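Assemble and predict.
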Amino acid sequence: MAASTLITVAPTGAEAGKAAVPALPVTLDELVGTAKECEAAGAAVIHVHIRDRTARPTLDRALLTDTVAALREGTDLIVQLSTGGAVTDSFADRLAVLDAAPDACSLTCGTVNFGADVFSNPWTFIKELYQLTQERQVVPEFELFDLGQVATLHRLLGEFGPPAGGRVHCDLVMGVPGGMPGDVATLVAAVAALPDGATWSATGIGRTTLPVLFGALGAGGHLRVGMEDTLSFARGRPVARNAELVERAAELARVAQRPPMRPAEARDFLGIPAR
Ligand code: KMH
Ligand code: ZN
């Protein structure tokens, strides 16, 4: 079991609206401020979605490039850009995210129903994105929303070889309406199906946040938390700041005798070159 716990913060996402959720970081200043607080609280990776001037999700290349630069300037966090974007984003725009030259990016291994929408990731897109990460040396994190996507990950690695950085790190995204449920039995089944030697984090959407967090810590996995995944800190109590989700995860990781991994250690763990 890993001696420490990688904590990723996903502070914004593409789904929640600023009007309904004023604590959501949507401007570059808000994002960098959040990132600094979350790093101090124990995060080592930031999973980034950005918003435009009207707080709508965007994959604007210049803004993505500025965001990577500002996060590097203000923190030591590993900057992982989302290539999932919003369900409305085109494949071309999602591939072009790598033009912003992040340390890492998400790479979802299959299409999944996403509430009333569809998060589309056909095989042709998955393999194109994967080969681009290899070419650009951007370390992918394999996002797995369902067990069938684990099979696709095996196929991807079998056909195209190891990822940039040489480490296979996955994130189980559980409890999306349409994806795998966020419970411990499903988590154990998904982990058992991962490629040999793969490391993994898990996150539970909404009310599955805590069962998945406790299950992941107990099973030797790593954690993703943040307002992309949950807007409630406890029943009837909205999240006030992303950092309080990181603080809680870090505290529970310490209780589990697996304290938060610092960014330098996390770079080594994920195969990301030092900056
Ligand atoms: N916003 C979702 C449709 C990712 O970042 O790679 C997709 C998502 C996954 O959040
Ligand atoms: Zn995301």
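The chain has nine helices and 14 strands.
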